[in-house]
Specification:
The complex is a heterodimer of chains A (110) and B (115). Chain A is an all-beta fold and 110 residues long. Helices cover 0% and strands 56% of the residues of chain A. Chain A starts with a strand and ends with a strand. Helices cover 0% and strands 50% of the residues of chain B. Chain B is globular, with a radius of gyration of 13 Å.
Amino acid sequence: QKEVEQDPGPLSVPEGAIVSLNCTYSNSAFQYFMWYRQYSRKGPELLMYTYSSGNKEDGRFTAQVDKSSKYISLFIRDSQPSDSATYLCAMAGGYNKLIFGAGTRLAVHP
Amino acid sequence: DAGVTQSPTHLIKTRGQQVTLRCSPKSGHDTVSWYQQALGQGPQFIFQYYEEEERQRGNFPDRFSGHQFPNYSSELNVNALLLGDSALYLCASIRGGQGIVYEQYFGPGTRLTVT
């Protein structure tokens, strides 16, 4: 079993839809939870991070962490074609080592 | 302020050959990590360099080795290339040995194709 599980999709939604992306993990020691966005042939860029449990909102994006269920989510409101990318969840191990999910490919069509 | 830079952008090698990839960290960062991202997969941690030493290593064979220079730049070397080594190789940098994990920045990657 992988430490971090993420449905690879692809996910296709119409412009303006609410998108829900999710990951599950097995290591209860994880404290930092990140979401990265990766455009084709580019490096990942940090979208949001959360420390421990709870919610965090930034514009159209909301990150949620439920440590009791070992489940994290990213919600995108009013999705735009420019949101089309691969979304990677990541958790921090020791010495800032990141453990990534497989990534979910999202396509937002006009 | 330049971010993380990597060279070359892409290259093609033949099975059995050796390859060296290069990374310059973001200004002010002194710790460099390398990741391998196979097509359709998330990045996998290869190893991390801090103070010119390998501090932590992921589940990769000894064919993968690295180096960090006094100016904090780093190289990743892969010997005896296999077809399965074809991937995007990402470099990430962070400030300080115990820098805050979400302040880790990634470079654009080097795409390696092994034929």
